[in-house]
Amino acid sequence: PQMVSLISDSIETKLICSRSTVGGAHLGEHWNGLRGLKSKQLIQKGKFDIVVIQDNSMWPVDNPDSVYKYAKLLCDLIKSTGAKPYIYETWARLKVPQHQKEINAVYEKVAKDNNATLVPVGVAWEKPGN
User: Which residues partner with 86 through β-bridges?
Assistant: First the structure.
């Protein structure tokens, strides 16, 4: 968040960012406040314009129904505060690049079903040279 805020110093719009993260977390843990995550409270009190959510990197492959369920809950909460949800698409692990198409499909469905903006990072990582 600090880096994004510093980068925004060079443009007309100042970006102020917050985060609720812990390594390897999935959206269900964010929703249920597990592992010390306070994502719901931050969203409810944050007065954000946008909120970016991202699931655990391989969770869309192993648990797509969980991704759909908790992404919807979080997107509904985000929209109830007047913010716009952004879905940060993850990328396949280097040893299993064949999973990227599955990951993309899950995130594309999440974005479409929840009227959210997709941030296609996984697609960018698929490009030659990345």
Answer: 52, 117
Q: Using CA atoms, how far apart are residues 44 and 46, in angstroms rounded to an integer? A: 6
Report pLDDT for 6: 83
pLDDT single digits (tens) 3-52: 888 888 888 888 888 899 999 999 999 999 999 999 999 999 989 999 99
pLDDT tens digits along 38-86: 999 999 998 999 999 999 989 999 999 999 999 999 999 999 999 999 9
Tokens 């969980």 belong to residue: 66
CA distance 127 to 109: 21
Q: Which two tokens stand for residue 109?
A: 């469905």
- Interatomic CA distance for residues 38 and 60, integer angstroms: 22
Name 38's Cβ contacts closer than 8 Å, sequence gap at least 6.
20
- Cβ atoms within 10 Å of 103's Cβ, excluding its own: 23
Nearest to 20 by CA among 70, 54, 65: 54
pLDDT digits (tens, 9 = 90+) for 107-122: 999 999 999 999 999 8
